[in-house]
Amino acid sequence: MPLSESILSNSRWSEYSLTFKNSRLEAHYKHHTFPRLLSQARLALLLGAMMYEMYGILDFLLVAKTALSQITVIRTVTTFTILIVFGITFLRAFKRYTQQILTFIFLFSAIGLLWKMALIQQSVFPYYFSGLLLMIFWIHAFYILNFKYAFYCTLSIVCISAIAFISIFTYSDVEIFGYLFILLSVFGVSVFSSYIAEKRDRALFLREKELDRERYVQRERATHDSLTDLPNRVLLMDRINQAILESRRNNQLSAAFFIDLDNFKDINDTYGHGTGDIVLIEVASRLKSSIRAADTVSRLAGDEFFVLARDIKSEELAKIFGNKLLSQINRPYFIDNESLAYDLSASIGICLFPYPGATALEVIAKADRAMYQVKLSDKSGIKIA
User: Fold this and answer.
1) Could you give all domains of the chain from N- to C-terminal order, each with its CATH number?
2) What local confidence, expressed as pLDDT, does residue 127 receive?
3) I need a surface site. Which of 6, 95, 176, 280 has the fewest CB within 10 A?
4) Residue 259 has pLDDT above 90, yes or no
């Protein structure tokens, strides 16, 4: 089912956070993008764990033995935590807390790397600094955090790194400035690219939903009566064909009711076509209120209606249902709180199916012939073909 016009009509978003201002539209967007996000999150977590372990090779090659055991513990705990989060992605709760969980693991991984950097010798620092840059790219490249979360997550990493450079690492001001400049440059490029990517994705989402809505409206216009909004003959034929197949498959009896209003021409001639349209809409409403969810009410043309009732059980129940429809139509009609001068009734022909060689056209034709026999007699009645 496409999104309603009321939801799509309010599709503005914040230029800063990129979230839709319409909370219902934002919820639909999250639901729409979650399958893609889930697969990319799992890939990102696995690659993140692999990347962390690959950096373990540098630990053994470059780190002094006095710090190696502590660094190994940090690396192992971080990798294990990433894999735990990977397992959480298979739980139902992950969908609800996706952004918070992913933000946590990214921050946790960054803090783990900064902790390792505080323990290593200054000579091998650039090798690990490149890992910090890769981590910022890791957060943005897979496009699994909403822009707002990605921005604040990487901004937090930059701020924590800046504090560490100034207060923990023993570097000159020039070296600190150089490292922070590179870090901020990578942060800026990453943030800008993820902003553009999500903005484009949201625009594409809106366009797809607008096209879905337009196709739905066009399909409804092609298959529904413009006055009563009931299914027209095109849709009715499809429903009857489905009912024939279902009735044969389940060994059930279905019934088709061809309804032609009696005295409707007198109402049109006396009160005008505007009043006639109001009466037709009221008839459609009464028929819809009389059927079950699996049944169909259709307007064929003019004052002709059609009811398709599935699984009607027996011929006797078909007659009872036909009389129920007739009694609904026979009730008085009021225009501006005044009763119409003419009593409206109906002639109803019933066709039970399936039968050998039954088709949608034949079912309608048989019900039509039965209805015409009622017209030739006393009108206002039912007859089974």
Assistant:
1) 5-215 (no CATH), 233-384 (3.30.70.270)
2) 86
3) 6
4) yes
